[in-house]
Design brief:
mainly alpha
């Protein structure tokens, strides 16, 4: 996998659409916060789908896109509650099991939102396919993808303004990787 190409693509695509992506990120964070996280998973699915359309079709992301996947509300909310309970249980045991649980969920479920929005898969099918994509071929490539994704979010997450730039960059990178792994149409270059 050509990580340099994906990082360059993510950088170029993010900064060519920086204003709509920052506005979408800001609205997504506000909606998630105001609803105490209840709308977080479904707005993230809409966010990911908007980025997928941006990369494949050259379509400019729109704020209303984050609400475009409301049909996934109950499956994603149920999944998020189960994951939250598992992670909290891990942290209650000791810190390490909680971190391992969070890392394991990230490793296995990284491609789940784009699979659900792109291929209209149900939660179980998307989870299986995401895991298959993660361990198919070079598992080390996926470890690097997870490390880069989390690294970008962590670096940008140190300050809120940084997060407004890092969240779009990390997710454009993720969708670019997903597009290659799923055999989707080529990413539009600027």
């Amino acid at each position: 996998m050509d990580f340099k190409w994906h990082i360059e693509t993510a950088w170029k695509q993010t900064f060519s659409n920086i204003i709509p992506l920052i506005l979408m990120t800001l609205v997504m964070v506000l909606v998630t916060g105001l609803t105490f996280g209840i709308l977080g998973p479904v707005t993230m699915a809409g966010y990911i789908h908007s980025i997928l359309l941006m990369l494949r079709d050259g379509r400019e992301p729109k704020i209303q896109d984050i609400f475009s996947q409301m049909n996934l509300f109950f499956p994603l909310l149920g999944f998020a509650v189960v994951v939250l309970i598992a992670i909290v249980a891990g942290f209650l045991m000791l810190l390490l099991p909680g971190f391992l649980m969070a890392l394991g969920v990230t490793f296995c479920c990284l491609y789940m939102p784009p699979l659900m929005t792109d291929r209209n898969l149900g939660i179980v099918d998307a989870l299986k396919e995401s895991y298959r994509m993660a361990v198919k071929e070079q598992i080390l490539d996926h470890v690097i993808v997870v490390a880069l994704y989390l690294g970008i979010l962590a670096l940008g997450g140190t300050i809120f303004v940084g997060f407004l730039f890092a969240c779009p960059l990390a997710n454009v990178f993720l969708v670019s990787i997903y597009n290659e792994k799923s055999g989707g149409t080529p990413v539009i270059h600027l």
